[in-house]
């Protein structure tokens, strides 16, 4: 059977972050980007179109949980490394805002976020019945800086830790542990 059609979805979100571990000095100051995340999904069991519904799953069903995650958790969130002193400041002085901080193992670079987002989407799709799988995720930080990731992101993430301490390994709306 020839390859089945892929489903491709793009979502825009705004974010803020800072990079404190060796990036340029300008990246060490909090700043933001308007990003685009594009996911490529394929059926885990491809089959011919049936002549009636003609889809593996509706677009709405395929993208609703992911778009909700991007809109409610990533859009206008601050991304900080788990050892960033700003995280402690927010937890002490503005705990209600600390809940909106995406916490990453090391700097929240575009490469890191692409891997974490791919891992999160993988578990979300598995929890939704495994009808679809993500074959690639593309994160465009700026019109000239884009990261694409395909494959298993877990071997690329730093220092293995128990899955229960990895928000990216849970099929929920969490963005920190």
Structure, described:
This protein has a six-stranded mixed sheet with strand order 4-3-1-2-5-6. The mean pLDDT is 93. It starts with 6 loop residues before the first strand and ends in a 28-residue tail after the last strand. β5 and β6 form a beta hairpin. The protein is of the alpha/beta class. It has one domain: Tetrahydropterin Synthase, Chain A (2-Layer Sandwich), CATH 3.30.479. It has four helices and six strands; from the N terminus they run ββαβααβαββ. 25% of the residues are buried. It is elongated and about 60 Å long.
Q: What's this, in brief?
A:
The protein is an alpha/beta fold and about 180 residues long. The chain contains four helices and six strands. Strand 5 (about 130-140) and strand 6 form a beta hairpin.
Oligomer: single chain
The CATH class label is Alpha Beta
Tell me what the CATH architecture is. Answer: 2-Layer Sandwich
Taken from the alpha-carbon principal axes, the silhouette is elongated
The count of DSSP E runs of length 2 or more, i.e. the number of strands, is 6
Annotation keywords:
alpha/beta, Tetrahydropterin Synthase, Chain A, 177 residues, six-stranded mixed β-sheet, 27% helix, elongated, 28% strand, single chain
Blueprint of the fold:
Blueprint lengths: L6 E11 L13 E13 L15 H16 L2 E5 L3 H9 L1 H4 L2 E4 L5 H18 L4 E11 L2 E5 L28
Parallel strand pairs: 1-3, 3-4
Antiparallel strand pairs: 1-2, 2-5, 5-6
